[in-house]
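Handover notes (outgoing to incoming on-call)

Open items:
1. 2-C-methyl-D-erythritol 4-phosphate cytidylyltransferase: sequence verified, structure written out, both below. Nothing else pending on this one.
2. Nothing else urgent.
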Amino acid sequence: MLSNQQPQLIAVVPAAGVGSRMRSDRPKQYLKIHGITVLEHTVNKLLSHKLIGKVIIAISENDEYFPKLDLARNPDVIRVVGGGERADSVMSALRYVVNHFSTEWVLVHDAARPCFQLSDVDTLIDASFKNHIGGILASPVTDTMKRGDTSGRIEHTIDRRDMWHAFTPQMFKVKLLFNALSGALDSGVSITDEASALEWSGTKPELVKGQTSNIKITQPEDLALAAFYISRDKG
Ligand code: CTP
Ligand code: MG
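2-C-methyl-D-erythritol 4-phosphate cytidylyltransferase structure tokens:
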């Protein structure tokens, strides 16, 4: 069980994407749900967790939206400059963590996932403290999986047993993640989540089952679903 004696944790939030698949007039983290931006929903929920003390947000260099938010004046929120790919943005925030904090553990969470459950974060933290490496929130694949060819026809069906959707938060020891991510980026490996960097370095992070409502807002239709989950959880 978690207790108040545990060290404070730091969360890193990559929020420097442009949201091209969302096709809206601004990056999706600045679209509003129930009057506040997706980024505020995400960061406020992270800060409401009793073990998370600071949130480091990676923001694009010429972002005109962030300075207008209350978050920009929150003493528990630190802004760093993001990079060209998600992994570069995470790396930028991790570099800040390594240089300014002695905290052992970090959680990395997408700005575009405002619907995560605090109870799932508890489960992830518990599992990470127990396995000493860390892990990710994830969910077993339920649909039948097909591999397509370039003309959109089915090559074959993939066995879905042991297949998982990878979510965030992903929680790791700061130094382990920093070394794995910088090593993977230096080697030119394609990294789409933190666990990929750990896998590349030969570590096996734990899969921690979380709620499927932890969607990543990606396409226009996702916004209404996120709004539904947020109001359901508030009610
Ligand atoms: N992200 C980031 N820096 C980048 C790219 C993405 O910090 N260079 C962040 C996004 O802001 C988002 C998270 O990583 O919170 C997950 O990425 P994704 O869903 O792919 O967001 P976008 O890259 O913004 O969207 P798209 O791929 O549709 O352009
Ligand atoms: Mg992207």
